[in-house]
Amino acid sequence: MQFGVAGYAFTRDTEAEVKRELARITDVKQNAKGFANYEQWLRGTQLEKKMSIEEYSVSNRGLRSGLTGTPAQVQDRIGEFKRAGVDLLLLQFSPQLEEMERFSETVIQPQASAVAQ
After folding, report:
1. Count of CB atoms within 10 A of residue 53's CB?
2. What pLDDT does residue 49 have?
3. Which residue of 26, 54, 62, 75 sits 20 to 30 Å from the alpha carbon of 113, by its own alpha carbon?
4. Phi/psi class of residue 85: alpha, beta or left (left: φ > 0; alpha: ψ in -120 to 50)?
5. Is the CB of residue 12 less than 8 Å from the CB of residue 21?
6. What pLDDT, on a 0 to 100 scale, did the predictor assign at position 111?
7. Is residue 5 within 8 Å of 90, Cβ to Cβ?
8. In the 3-class helix/strand/coil scheme, how is the chain assigned residue by residue?
9. Does residue 81 or residue 49 have the better pLDDT?
10. CA of 91: how far to CAs of 38, 85, 107, 115, in Å?
11. How many angstroms separate the CA atoms of 83 and 69, rounded?
12. Whole-model pTM?
């Protein structure tokens, strides 16, 4: 059996840059239709309503996985998941190509180099 975690992921070099990117991706006011949809969802759902507007802005409550931060912070979080038995990560990025490349360069490649040594 495999265990996986889905999450929204990004890295930035500093805490200040991480905070700016979080503010950018969770700004639902930039899209009034999206915010109206969020309010409609809250009124009509039978599901758990403990969801912040920031979580709504990133699909599937992707920020709850904690895969955002500096490269070292994200590597540490992935290590926590691995120790807990997670062997599959389903990651969401936006903009997809640029953020996937950054993730590869800052999180995956350094880890692969460290393991190879």
Report:
1. 15
2. 54
3. 62
4. left
5. yes
6. 80
7. yes
8. CCCEEEEECEECCCHHHHHHHHHHHCCHHHCHHHHHHHHHHHHHCCCCCCCCHHHHHCHHHHHHHCCEECHHHHHHHHHHHHHCCCCEEEEECCCHHHHHHHHHHHHHHHHHHHHHC
9. 81
10. 22, 17, 13, 22
11. 20
12. 0.75
- Report, as an integer, the average pLDDT of 12-24: 94
| Contact indicator for 7, 90 with CB cutoff of 8 Å | yes
What confidence score (pLDDT) does residue 67 get? 96
What is the predicted pLDDT for the residue at 75? 97
Residues above pLDDT 90, as percent of the chain: 52
Q: Cα 115–89–58 angle (5° rounding)?
A: 130
Across the chain, what does the average pLDDT equal?
83
